[in-house]
Amino acid sequence: MQESEEQREPINKRRNPAIRVTMMPRDTNHHGTIFGGIVLSYIDVAGGVEAVRHTGHDRFVTVAMKEIIFHEPVFVGDLVSFYAETLKVGNTSITIRVVVEAERFGSRGQIVRVTEAEVVFVAINQNREKIPIRLT
C-alpha cells in the first residue's frame, strides 16, 4: 500500500510542538545526559496537551506508555520539542504518539530525533470515573 505524502512527512512538519523545553543541569543523570524519566514526564505532559486539544475534555489520566524508544541522548542546553498527534480515539480512551526532537545547543540548528512513544489516556470526570469521549 502506498503511503500518502502526509503520512511520510515528519510529524514536526505538520504541526507546532505541544511543548518545548530547554534542558537544564538539574535534569542530568550520572552519565551527564538528561535522565530518561525527565523526558518521559514531558512526553506525558505533551500527550495530555494533545488529548485536550483533540477532544475538548479537560481531564485525562495516563493508563499506558507503550513502545518508548530512546534513539539519542539529550544534553544540557538542548531545546527539546515534543510533537504529539492523535492515533486513535475510543469510547473512553485516546492514544497519542509523541515524537521528541532536540535542537542541539551551540550547533547552529542541528535537530535530532531523540525519543518517541505512544501514550494512552482515559477521560475522567471530577470524581475520577471514566467518561465517554465526545469530540467537539
How are the SSEs placed, and which strands pair?
Layout: H1 5-8, H2 11-14, E1 19-22, H3 36-55, E2 60-70, E3 79-89, E4 93-103, E5 111-123
Antiparallel strand pairs: 1-3, 2-5, 3-4, 4-5
Strand segment tally: 5
Helix fraction bin: 10-25%
The N- to C-terminal Cα distance equals 32 Å
Give the low-confidence spans.
1-9
CATH fold type: Thiol Ester Dehydrase, Chain A
Task: Let me know the CATH homologous superfamily.
Answer: Hotdog Thioesterase
Number of domains: 1
What is the 3D shape?
elongated
Assign the CATH architecture.
Roll
Observed structural traits:
136 residues; alpha+beta; Thiol Ester Dehydrase, Chain A; 3 helices; 21% helix; 37% strand
Protein model, in words:
- This protein is of the alpha+beta class and 136 residues long.
- It has one domain (15-123): Roll (Thiol Ester Dehydrase, Chain A), CATH 3.10.129.10.
- Helices cover 21% and strands 37% of the residues.
- It has 3 helices and 5 strands.
- Strands 1-3-4-5-2 form a 5-stranded antiparallel sheet, with helices on one face.
- A hairpin with a 7-residue loop joins strand 4 (93-103) and strand 5.
- The longest helix has 20 residues, at 36-55.
